[in-house]
Design brief:
Ribosomal Protein L25, Chain P, alpha+beta, RNA Polymerase Alpha Subunit, Chain A, domain 2
Amino acid sequence: MSELVIEVERREQFGKGANRKLRAQGLIPAVVYGGGKEPVPVVVNRKAVTELLHQERGKNTIFLLRMKGTKQERHAMLKDFQIDPITQQYIHLDFIRVMKGQHVRVEVPVELVGESVGVKAGGFLDFTGRSLHVECPADAIPEKVTVDISKLRIGEHVAAGDVKLPPGVKLLDDPHKILVTIEGRAAATEEEVAAAPAEEMAEPEVIRRGKAEAEEEAEEE
C-alpha cells in the first residue's frame, strides 16, 4: 500500500493576520514537532489534506511529510487539529514526528458484526463504547476493532477487556469499560423524552481553546 504524502512548505509569517491571509489562499497553518527536534512551522494545502483525512486510511496513519523545494522528508502523524465551527474547515494542524516501529497511543473505532440473538428475542442494542484507546507500533495501527455480537443474549454485554486485539496492540482503557449491552426493555419513547425536564436533557457546551490560538497570542506579545 502506497504512503500518503503531504507536501508542506515552511511558514515564515506568524500571527492572526498572517494566518488569516494563508487560510484565504487555501492554506492551513501547521506545526511539526516531537522526535527530539525543534518545532517547525509549516503550511499545507487545505484541499489536498482534507481529501486525505476524509479517507478511511487518513485516520491514525503515518504520513510522509515532504518539504516543498527540498529533498527533506519526515514521517509524522496528525496529533491534533482545529476546525472552524462555522465553515467546518480545518484551520490548524499539529503533526508529531514518528519513526516506523515507534509505539504510539491512538484511538481506534469499534465496529459491531453479526446480529445478536438477544435482539432477535426482543431486546435492544445499547452501543456506548464506540472506540478504544490502544498503544501499538506506529506502522501497525489497526483501522478498526471488530466485536462479534451474534451470541449476545438479553442482559449480556461486551467489555473492553473481552475484545481480542491484534498482536502487538495493548489496551489502554479500563478493561471493565462497557462497549455494548443487550437490554431487555424497550428504549424510551418520544413522549417520555419530551416529558423529561429540560435541564436534565441539556448538555454543557464545551469550547476547546486551540493550540494555534495560544501560539498566535504568544507571538503577538
